[in-house]
Amino acid sequence: MIDFYFSLPDIVRYIIQGIAVICFLFPVGAACSMAERKVAAWAQDRPGPNRARPWLLARIPIIGPILGYFGIFNLMADGGKLLFREDITPGHVNKFYFVMAPIVAMTPALSTIVFVPFGAYLDSAGQILPVMLANVDIGILGVFALASLSVYSLILAGWASNSKYPFLGAIRASAQLISYELSMTLAVVPVLLWINAPGTTGSLSLVRVVEFQSQPGFWGGMWFVFIMPVSAFIFLITIFAETNRQPFDMPESEADLVGGYHTEYGSYKWSLFFVAEYCQMIVGSGIFILLFLGGWNPLPWIPLADLVNWLHDLLHWQWLLHPIFVGLLSIGIFVTKVLIFIFIFMWVRWTLPRFRYDQVMRIGWQRLLPLSIANLVVYIIAIALLQK
């Protein structure tokens, strides 16, 4: 089976992989809306969405009550409602750009996953090979370039709505992106300097970053979150701001902008904005895990290859070394870390109050940017001394 798959032309394999990733990412992004309400209910000490019980499905032994308890029937009902509800387009909007905005929102949200390695497997020589759609040297640069385009959908939606609240939300989105993108980029530079030592081939690949956290020895196996905690902290804060998550959800800000850029939207077009936001959260969490939390390695100082060899030596099962098992194991580890991060996103939303807009700007320009510059200078000096 696997031999047949790798015998296919590259373009066919890339199309299959791309469809598989989108088929996973899109429903997971949609399911996050239900998970968010469950986390909100947990934070507020109430049952949450568990009332929808279709007569026939709810009577399936064991499965029916479990699906009802976790709110899966509510998710199905919400999907059907948003898909089939009458799609109203207000008469005062610019219809072409109004319809284009949610489509534009989905494009960078799904395309950034191309550069994200989400697993690895062992080849016949025992080498770790990444599972990803495009293993290129400009991985992190490609992610930043595509992710920065997501704000254009918010600007387009705010302008095309021809209304003051959506327009103010769009202006806030563009200002917030500029304020935090500089700090995000500067936070990543120390990691790239560390992995590109003098005399080595330069690379911006995320696979290279994970390889550096998989080396033997105390410093080799240490994750970058321990070596560069300030960079990790800045990057984490900027992810919240770039994905417009509370306490940085200024473009929506229901209290003073009604709903911000999506005020005039409803039904399926409205849901596309939120699926795009959850997809960005998933990709942002994945980038943070690859940069600072060892990627698909289970624990610090325990790389994936050592875990597989340890399991094989313990159980003596030959299939433990099979590429499919190793690939599924690595993907499982990576996805588990991503899900933990998604929970943190939701936990923060239902725990912390929203910042005022002037506070968001002050944090971006007067706190994070000077801190990221000072952090970069310190690590430039330290890395230059260590790699001298």
Annotate the secondary structure layout.
Blueprint: H1 2-7, H2 10-43, H3 63-69, H4 72-84, H5 95-111, E1 120-122, E2 128-130, H6 139-147, H7 150-160, H8 164-195, H9 206-212, H10 224-227, H11 229-242, H12 254-257, H13 267-292, H14 304-315, H15 323-349, H16 357-386
Antiparallel strand pairs: 1-2
Shape: globular
Total number of strands: 2
Order of helices and strands: HHHHHEEHHHHHHHHHHH
Radius of gyration: 22 Å
Number of helices: 16
Kindly estimate the percentage of residues that lie in beta strands according to DSSP. Answer: under 5%
The class by helix and strand makeup works out as mainly alpha
What level of helicity do the residues show?
55-70%
The N- to C-terminal Cα distance equals: 49 Å
The biggest beta sheet, please?
2 strands, antiparallel
Mean pLDDT across the residues is 83
Strand order of the largest sheet: 1-2
Query: Uncertain regions: pLDDT < 50 for 5+ in a row?
Result: none
Care to describe what's here?
The protein has a two-stranded antiparallel ribbon. By secondary structure, it is mostly helical. Helices cover 65% and strands 2% of the residues. The protein starts with a helix and ends with a helix. Helix 5 packs parallel to helix 13 (267-292) and helix 13 packs across helix 15 (323-349). It is built from 16 helices and 2 strands.
What is this structure, in a nutshell?
This protein is mainly α and 388 residues long. It has helices at 2-7, 10-43, 63-69, 72-84, 95-111, 139-147, 150-160, 164-195, 206-212, 224-227, 229-242, 254-257, 267-292, 304-315, 323-349, 357-386, and strands at residues 120-122, 128-130.
